[in-house]
Specification:
Length: 708
């Protein structure tokens, strides 16, 4: 390639341009809406380096790729070798091959576009034939360079841990290096989601402003690093180098000659129309590229966890199955506590790993429960945690060597240890947990896959002493291998991903699952805020939301919150009053009517429960399916500001609409009126004043088609 030939990546409405200088070093010419259409004005060497590697191009910032070579050389100096392009599946796969003249190490930048959604996936592959292993000390997937305003902002989602997922923070992009990462290896997303929103031009809103949305598709430790510097430029006073990928903290990777190291894919998009556009892009891309069975409505699940915890027997479960069917649920999910023989699982202290039904609780095994569900006309689902073991279990007694640990006594967490998936036998065992469980309960068509502890004493007997830290990366690939095998063996079984709640919510792992358990925190007040944040990236079809008693909130309010996700229930169906049963029946009826739109429609947000001075209210709509829109409004707390008007977006101009206000109290007295869009566009008055109240509307455009 000549020095001025430009490598353009058109990501669908935005993109990037790279060019090599006379020495073959890659530089970023452009990025953003016109970024894929930039020409070389001055020599490429005057543009920022594309991917610094301790090569002298950007010596004062942490590099996205840092390698100690086999002979001890610390720098890597890459030159462009080739560019290859392939058209695939509604987009392009561009491979930019570079190599180090001194060491022969090869680095490939991969970019996969999906023009219809505007999401770009990028990752890096490294391989070499040096005289021995090299050590990767930093291995990001992307490192774009941007000029940003001095009031640029970042929205990130990190909380205190369990039951506090998706806690929203909006912060200024401050000068210096900010690292937003997570650790723990398993369930890292309990602490921080691997998703980020950056507003480079200053504050953005739901429907205005420039917003970059990013998501690291990685079921392990991930990070974003935001390095911000002042410049002398008044128009764009700051520089940002944004790195994203797997978190290398404590995880230097020793890479053998001839082995390929593939970084996680980072999916990202660029909106000039605010955050709702970022959401539309991620949802469309996820449906096209990630989700299993994206066009099917997810079923209404009734779970027994919060109703019984570990305390149940066959009669209790068959009673709940009948109750679930009676109320209109479509799948009954039997949670933790059904297994363990010699050391039965009556609490979380023992039995994990011994996947045979507990004969005291279930003398006939799982079969009678599947039969009960079938007789009741619903499906049966079951909980497993294949990656874990209680030290007090037959499995651990038989295979004490199977766990992740170093030379110290391993620390228990929730009384359990992590099985080491780097062992082939362990991987086979984990696949078998799913296969054997399904074989014990023929007809089961839904599995909840849990993982309830982080890695605390990293170490694997399968790795030599100088490669122990490879565990952090190899663990993810080995776990994905298990998930891929288990789901390939049972393609018709629906899968829910769970890790102490939403501890493993990433687009990399989601490929094998239909949905995830968003959080163990099912208090509807907390859930409105979590679902608000999570839905910026993940469609409602994936975001399991159950009506429970958590927080002691009114059941109609809890139902209205669950209706905005993948609706389900987890309440003691045997302990309901008649009035409560009617509330749940009503919620199920509304779920059946609305979930095709909620799970697949386009999201428009109006009132934020996580930003601004008054976070007491929330409202958003999901629409565009068959001309129908579902609008949600929640009053979470007492308000300190005047009520807002709900000015709806996404409706077809000129159409008349049938507006149904659902009555969720159980009386079933919906209010139906006909309004034209112009009236709706003027704004609906805020209908709520009391905390813990909600309103759900269906707005059906008369004579409208599907315009999503
Ligand atoms: C985790 C899950 C819960 C439940 C329990 C069972 O905490 O997130 O939903 O399945 O495990 O032990």
């Amino acid at each position: 390639m000549s020095a001025t030939e430009v490598i353009r990546i058109d990501a669908g409405g935005w993109g990037l341009s790279w060019a090599a200088d006379e020495e073959g070093r890659l530089h970023q010419l452009g990025l953003g809406v016109e970024g894929h259409d930039v020409s070389v004005d001055v020599a490429p060497r005057w543009y920022p380096s594309t991917f610094p590697t301790l090569d002298g191009t950007d010596p004062f910032r942490p590099p996205p790729l840092q390698i100690t070579h086999a002979d001890g050389t610390l720098s890597t100096r890459l030159a462009l070798r080739a560019v290859e392009r392939d058209t695939i599946d509604g987009g392009e796969h561009v491979v930019v091959r570079t190599g180090d003249e001194l060491t022969g190490l090869a680095v490939e930048h991969h970019a996969r576009t999906h023009s219809a959604s505007g999401v770009l996936e990028q990752w890096v592959e490294v391989h070499h034939d040096e005289s021995g292993p090299v050590t990767l000390l930093a291995y990001d997937s992307i490192a774009p360079f941007l000029l940003v305003a001095d009031d640029a902002e970042v929205c990130h989602f990190g909380g205190s841990g369990w039951a506090d997922e998706w806690r929203w923070s909006t912060d200024p992009l401050v000068i210096g290096t900010t690292v937003l990462g997570n650790l723990g290896g398993i369930q890292p997303h309990l602490q921080r989601s691997p998703c980020l929103l950056v507003s480079p031009d200053g504050p953005s809103s739901d429907d205005a402003g420039t917003v970059i949305g990013l998501s690291v598709c990685w079921g392990g430790n991930a990070h974003f690093s935001l390095d911000v510097r002042p410049t002398a430029e008044p128009a764009a006073p700051r520089e940002l180098r944004l790195r994203a990928g797997a978190n290398p903290l404590g995880a230097p990777y020793r890479l053998e000659p001839g082995v390929r190291f593939v970084t996680p894919s980072v999916a990202w998009t660029w909106s000039t129309a605010g955050r709702d556009r970022v959401t539309a892009s991620f949802h469309d891309w996820a449906r096209a590229r990630i989700l299993r069975d994206p066009d099917e409505r997810r079923m209404i699940v009734a779970n027994n966890w919060e109703a019984t915890f570990f305390d149940f027997d066959e009669a209790r479960i068959t009673g709940l199955i009948d109750g679930a069917a009676d109320i209109g649920a479509e799948v009954f999910l039997l949670d933790d506590g059904w297994f363990g023989t010699e050391l039965p699982r009556d609490d979380d202290t023992q039995g994990l790993g011994d996947w045979e039904p507990d004969e005291r609780k279930l003398p006939g095994g799982l079969g009678p429960l599947v039969d009960a569900a079938t007789d009741a006309g619903i499906r049966f689902g079951i909980w497993v945690e294949p990656e874990m073991v209680n030290p007090r279990s037959v499995l651990h007694r038989t295979h004490p060597e199977w766990v992740v640990r170093d030379r110290r006594d391993p620390r228990e967490h929730r009384n359990q240890l992590l099985l080491d998936p780097l062992r082939a036998q362990v991987r086979d065992f984990e696949v078998d947990v799913v296969t054997q469980t399904l074989a014990r309960a023929p007809g089961t068509s839904y599995v909840k896959w849990d993982a309830n502890r982080p890695v605390t004493d990293p170490g694997s007997a399968t790795l030599p002493a100088d490669r122990q830290a490879n565990l952090w990366v190899d663990l993810v690939h080995a776990t994905w291998d298990v998930m891929a095998r288990a789901t390939a063996a049972h393609p018709d079984v629906e899968m829910m991903l769970c890790a102490s709640g939403g501890g493993r919510v990433d687009f990399g792992t989601l490929r094998w699952f239909h949905e995830f358990w968003t959080s163990d925190n099912t208090d509807p007040v907390a859930r409105v805020r979590m679902q608000w944040a999570c839905s910026h990236f993940f469609p409602a079809s994936t975001m399991a939301a159950h009506v429970t008693r958590w927080g002691g909130r009114p059941l109609d309010f809890a139902s209205a919150v669950a209706l905005s996700g993948r609706f389900g229930l987890d309440v003691d169906l045997d302990a309901l009053t008649d009035a409560e049963r009617e509330v749940l029946r009503r919620a199920v009826t509304v779920a059946r009517r609305t979930q095709d739109v909620v799970q697949s429609g386009s999201v428009h947000r109006y009132v934020s429960p996580v930003e601004g001075p008054d976070r007491s209210r929330a409202a958003w709509s999901v629409g565009g399916i068959g001309g129908r829109t579902i609008l949600f409004a929640y009053q979470l707390e007492h308000s300190s500001t005047p009520p807002p008007l709900l000015v709806l977006r996404g409706l077809r101009a000129g159409a008349a609409c049938r507006v149904t206000t659902f009555d969720l109290t159980g009386d079933g007295c919906d209010v139906v009126e006909t309004l034209d869009v112009a009236q709706l566009a003027e704004g609906l008055p805020w209908p709520l004043s009391e905390p813990l109240t909600a309103r759900v509307w269906e707005i059906a455009e008369l004579d409208a088609g599907d315009d999503r």
